[in-house]
Amino acid sequence: MRFITSILLLFLVAGLAGSAQAKPKIKYPGSTREAALRCPGAGCLGSVTASPGQQVDFWIAGSDLAKVTSIKFQPADRIEVGKLEATEDTVHAVLTISPGAAIGKRSFVVTSPAGDSNQSDGELNITTFRISNLKIDNVANNNGTLTFRVTLNYSDPTGAVSSAGMNRNTSLNFTGHVIGGVGSGFMFNPEGRTPGAKSGVISFTTSYDNLQGITGAIYSISLTVEDGRESDKLQAIF
Predict the structure, then answer these.
(1) Both ends of the chain: CA-CA distance in Å?
(2) Which domains are delineated in the chain?
(3) What is the pTM of this model?
């Protein structure tokens, strides 16, 4: 009888261990549920950008998320996490960024009773230099050199931007094959900018070689200004 009881206890312990809740696993964030669930992939931006004083929706995709109770940012200064809702594959939170929040990127994990998740490859990017209205035109392919014109708007409440450069994340994507952007040393002056301007237009022409027959792609771009602030990451299909 003692032998049988021991076997039953072993099965009970094994069953309890097997039923223990798995730690949450996260992928990339997004500003919408769809954007988060698509990651990683052609539609994935991999980060959410906000400015100090702003309130934003923050979605995270993954698995074993139903019992997530909090999001931990690193560094965590001046970010309030409100209205957190979790399902098995997504977490939705409304973030309030304090007007005094430091500029820069935040990595994050989520937490459930089972423990902390892995750290996401995506980020929360807090910046005051923003870009919008990305447009691609004048697309041409001459002997395998793809060229196109990029136009976008920028805003900078400090009025301090005198030049901007391609961020390392700028890229072209062709059915899963990614071609990196121009070198990080490529800088340009915002077109039409006047001293102290807080908004304006950036426009330039870029080219990529050895792309015979290619006349369209997914173009993702983010910019960095001379004081280190990094913009949103935008993308356009052309």
Answers:
(1) 75
(2) 25-126 (2.60.40.10), 130-237 (2.60.40.10)
(3) 0.80
